[in-house]
Design goal:
Elements (H helix, E strand, L loop, with lengths): L2 H24 L8 H29 L5 H6 L19 H22 L5 H29 L3 H14 L11 H7 L7 H18 L22 H9 L1 H5 L6
Helix pairs in contact: 1-2, 1-7, 2-5, 4-5, 4-6, 4-8, 5-6
């Protein structure tokens, strides 16, 4: 694998994470439990969409085949998306959304903090903007975990259920493969394994604070980085790609 091929794949992965999670967060528009949170989650979705645009645009430039951000976002088949599986799982209830945001935003804050030191100037610039957004998302999710965990009996139970359901999908966020290895040799990519312990410490501290049992060692679901998805991905693409598939040559 060449450096160019690895960098293209790397940008696709990060862009797909942002794109698909943005879709899930956008489903809360007009459906959140309060107006303030409706606006917050919608704005988080916009943050992720902006990140996806930057990364997919750069991926298209690296590929050099004339594909735009829209082509990469809307005109790929399911097996050609490489997001982490946790991003595509159903939005579930509010506790599920908050736990997913806590898990992913904490990883992203650590990840993009390291990526600001990348030898690739474009990735470093994208990371410098993203790390601020990820930190805000992480703090927001942490506050809500406290409110749910220390709230009513029902909110505590829902929080525990969401943690149990999503924990098996967190290991994938820290996997390393040939794509990452090639770029690490060039000081471009982040060492995923190196940030895992800090992620685990932060998450465990939050959960203990609200009296939620920290899940022990368990089997981790994987496959997203290889284009192998859950049954929910096809439904996302059916809705997300409808307009582009129906009117493929439309201009705005």
């Amino acid at each position: 694998m060449t450096e160019k091929e690895a960098l293209f794949s790397y940008c696709l992965r990060l862009g797909d994470d942002a794109l698909i999670h943005s879709y899930r967060l956008s489903e809360w528009c007009r459906n959140a439990p309060m107006l303030e949170e409706d606006l917050a989650l919608t704005n988080f979705a916009l943050d992720l969409t902006g990140r996806a645009r930057a990364l997919l645009t750069y991926a298209g430039e690296i590929e050099g085949k004339g594909r735009t951000e829209d082509d990469l976002a809307y005109r790929r088949e399911e097996r050609h998306y490489f997001n982490n599986l946790i991003c595509e799982l159903p939005k579930g209830d509010f506790a599920t959304t908050i736990v997913r945001l806590l898990f992913t935003a904490t990883q992203e804050h650590l990840f993009y903090s390291e990526l600001t030191h990348s030898q690739d100037g474009t990735l470093a610039a994208i990371a410098a903007k993203t790390v601020k957004e990820a930190q805000y998302h992480m703090v927001h999710a942490s506050d809500w975990v406290r409110r749910l965990g220390l709230g009513t009996e029902e909110s505590h139970e829902r929080l525990e259920r969401a943690i149990d359901e999503l924990c098996p999908y967190t290991g994938e966020m820290f996997e390393t493969d040939k794509v990452v290895a090639v770029l690490q040799d060039k000081n471009i990519a982040v060492d995923n394994a190196a940030i895992r312990s800090n992620w685990k410490t932060y998450i465990e501290d939050i959960l203990r604070e609200v009296g939620v049992m920290v899940p022990g060692s368990q089997h981790m679901q994987t496959g997203g980085r290889k284009g192998i998805h859950t049954e929910y991905m096809g439904h996302i693409l059916t809705e997300m790609q409808y307009l582009q598939r129906t009117y493929p040559d439309a201009t705005w």
